[in-house]
Amino acid sequence: MVEAFEIDSQAKMIESTSDVVEVDTNKVLVFVVHDTKTVYLWRGKSADIFKKLMGTRVAAKLSHTYSDYRIRPISEGNEPAAFNQLIGTKLN
Fold first, then answer.
1. What tens digit of pLDDT does each residue of 14-29 get?
2. Long-range contacts of range 77-83, CB-CB < 8 Å, 24 or more positions apart?
3. Mean pLDDT across the stretch 53-78?
4. pTM as predicted
5. Class of the 2-17+24-87 domain?
6. Cβ proximity of 27 and 52 under 8 Å
7. Three-class HEC string of 33-77
8. Contact between residue 58 and residue 42 where contact means Cβ atoms under 8 Å apart
9. Cα–Cα distance list, 30 to 46, 73, 83 (Å)
10. In the beta sheet, which residues pair with residue 39?
């Protein structure tokens, strides 16, 4: 199961209501992948620096909730294969 969220400038996690999350260069996204116990923090190249900072704070907060999960920060353009596979498939 995968949960996907967009981070807004107030550090709020806006849950995706779609089966497919669009990665947008202006967004900061968080994907919680329960199967692999991984939290991906994806930062678009054109995302506001404040949103990027808020994304880091959200990831830190999630590390308390999911203490046995690995936090993987990712910058747009440096996505690992596992992440590309994740966003290429349906969520949940």
1. 988 777 777 899 999 9
2. 77/45, 79/42, 82/36, 82/38, 83/31, 83/40, 83/42
3. 93
4. 0.87
5. alpha beta
6. no
7. ECCCCEEEEEECCCCCHHHHHHHHHHHHHHHHHCCCCEEEEEECC
8. no
9. 16, 9, 11
10. 32, 71
